[in-house]
Fold:
Amino acid sequence: MALVGCGAISKTHIRAILAAGQTVAALCDVEPGKAHALAEATGLSAPAVFTDYNAMLDAVRPDIVHICTPHDLHVPMAIAALERGIHVLCEKPLAVSRAQLREVIEAERRSTAMLGVCHQNRYEPNMRRLREMVKTQPQGGYATVVWRRDAAYYRSGAWRGTRAHEGGGVLINQAIHTLDLMQWIFGTPTHVTAHLSNDFLRDVIEVEDTAACTFESEIGARWQFFATTSGAVDFPIRICVRLASGELVEAQNHQFTVNHQVLSGEDDTGEGKWVWGDGHQSLIRDFYEHVQENKPFWLDAEEGAKVVRMILAAYQSNGQRIRIAGE
Ligand SMILES: NC(=O)c1ccc[n+]([C@@H]2O[C@H](COP(=O)([O-])OP(=O)(O)OC[C@H]3O[C@@H](n4cnc5c(N)ncnc54)[C@H](O)[C@@H]3O)[C@@H](O)[C@H]2O)c1
Structure:
């Protein structure tokens, strides 16, 4: 395996690679010190370190490359690997524009290699359970994502909070996981009405820190979505669904309730993975198994594009109800 982008999320990937019994042959970062620090922190024995991504792919020819770089680099880096027949495990979001989506879907179609997108919360048992319940009784619902990302967080990377590199704010970075779960549970929505604002970090970021959206599906199911990075702390995500039977089901990553009765999970507080979701190891192991058996992976470019299309439509909405364009 090889990995590019040795920042905050990279440790989680390296640990998952090692847990799957695989070897990390090379690391790449424009700041080589970060690659060396990552190797040391995760106990890797002398992986080759590169500052040029294409040079790493050519020199090492890994079976799979993990892409953990800023958002605008995902597509050019994925395409460079796919064109060389190297499989790609790409962090979210798959892309930051519709043009990038088209390019990467096309590159995946042309390639002998596969691409997987890191929407690890689809591996959370509570979310799978909720999806099974909703599938037979599609109804309305709502979801909330209230996390804390303050000025210090945004100043920790020049790409953060910029339209050009992050592609947006809370929707495309933090809330994307929950939006993806919602479309996976309710079906791909056709329309969105979105109100976006920068309420708390006006002097720090040029993108939204707060979003309130209504999504509608083909069959008329509606769901509301509220997300902000202005929370006092990170709260667990909350997905609440009213079933046709009248029951109210509420799922968090670690708690599942029906009509207030707790069916699993005692404690809904925590931090880090507790709130973000802890499915990286399951997703990465699953992707590797598909590569080894040469079977198409379910979370491919087309699947990863669905939530990006929703977000790009929300960015265009400006309070108006608009259609979410397909391919
Ligand atoms: N799935 C999740 O739960 C989750 C959680 C956190 C972050 N992420 C995603 O992971 C990605 C990285 O986020 P992060 O928080 O680790 O960011 P980060 O800024 O901490 O790390 C990004 C790294 O990429 C390096 N980099 C930048 N340009 C490069 C280039 N051209 N070549 C090689 N290296 C380059 C930077 O030097 C930095 O070390 C983002 O897409 C983010 O959305 C996903």
Remarks:
- The first strand starts at residue 2 and ends at 4.
- Residues 4-9, 28-31, 34, 53, 68-71, 73, 91-92, 118, 120, 157, 173, 276 surround nicotinamide-adenine-dinucleotide (CB under 6 Å).
- The chain has a mean pLDDT of 93.
- The two ends are 31 Å apart (CA to CA).
